[in-house]
Design a protein that fits this description.
Largest sheet: 3 strands, antiparallel
Radius of gyration: 18 Å
Order of helices and strands: HHHHEEHHEEEHHHH
Number of strands: 5
Distance between the termini: 38 Å
Number of helices: 10
Strand content: under 5%
Length: about 280
């Protein structure tokens, strides 16, 4: 339900921009984005990377990413989606020794993509590079978190500690961190920062570093929230505020909060610095 509401809101925002704010070249890019998003989402759906709800959300996400974000926006999303999907799909469970197909649903798409899309829309309207940097930081977090979870939690064995108490826990535990996961987390964030630099060659090294650090920091925030509040029951007011989608704090909500904290912090930093 909530993912469909977000879809509608962003589609309305896109229509508003298309009719009232966009120039001729923007119109063409948005139209191309419709075609490309449909093709890529269809492929992802039949490759079992997306559920039906996930496909709808990814279509809207793709429209905004390339339609308003251009080549940089599209490059960031493709890097995140392809790398995370390759890491997440076809995992083998040690307990059951069965293959698990992983399909992202609508809420999983927006838990990682909401802030990116919001910054892209705002950046397009106000023509400020700060918001594009914030968008890159939110995807740096999403990539960082996914790489940490899949590599540190599933693919590389090692000691895992709860971030809130540093007590030893089983790999994959909410709030758990490990050396392998942390290294993978930074590598994922750095990859996004480098891809963003390759599509914005005028960007300086400090900005690249800040995007990578924001992604890594967001991953630590995600782990801390996972240890402290994930799985906790929400109050009645919070459930109403979230359109009754969440009766408890799940991983999607934790991801959304961590992604927001990382990108908002970067926005404030660069606004203060005047970059």
């Amino acid at each position: 339900m909530l993912d469909r509401i977000i879809n509608i809101l962003f589609l309305f925002a896109l229509i508003f921009v298309f009719l009232l704010e966009a120039k001729a070249e923007d119109h063409l890019r948005i139209i191309i984005a419709v075609v490309l998003s449909f093709i890529l989402v269809t492929i992802a759906f039949f490759m079992n990377w997306l559920s039906l709800d996930g496909a709808r959300s990814a279509f809207t996400f793709g429209l905004i990413s390339y339609g308003l974000g251009g080549i940089p926006g599209a490059a960031l999303i493709l890097t995140f989606f392809i790398s995370s999907s390759l890491l997440s799909k076809d995992l083998i469970s040690e307990d059951t020794l069965t293959e698990t197909k992983f399909r992202r649903d609508g809420m999983q798409v927006w838990s990682n993509g909401f802030w990116f899309s919001l910054w892209i829309v705002i950046g397009f309207l106000f023509e400020s590079p700060v918001f594009m940097i914030a968008a890159a930081s939110s995807i740096a977090f999403a990539t960082s978190d996914t790489w940490a979870s899949e590599i540190g939690g599933h693919r590389v064995k090692g000691k895992t500690y709860l971030i809130s108490s540093f007590s030893s826990v089983k790999p994959g535990t909410d709030g758990g961190v490990s050396v392998a996961g942390t290294l993978a987390s930074f590598a994922g964030a750095l990859l996004i920062a480098v891809v963003f630099w390759l599509t914005n060659l005028e960007m300086n090294f400090f900005t690249v570093l800040m995007i990578a650090i924001a992604g890594l920091t967001g991953s630590f925030v995600d782990s801390w929230l996972g240890a402290k509040i994930q799985g906790k029951t929400l109050g009645s007011f919070s459930r109403k505020l979230l359109v009754n989608r969440f009766s408890y704090v799940d991983n999607n909500l934790v991801n959304w909060l961590a992604s927001g904290s990382a990108s908002v912090a970067v926005t404030i930093l660069f606004a203060i610095l005047g970059t």
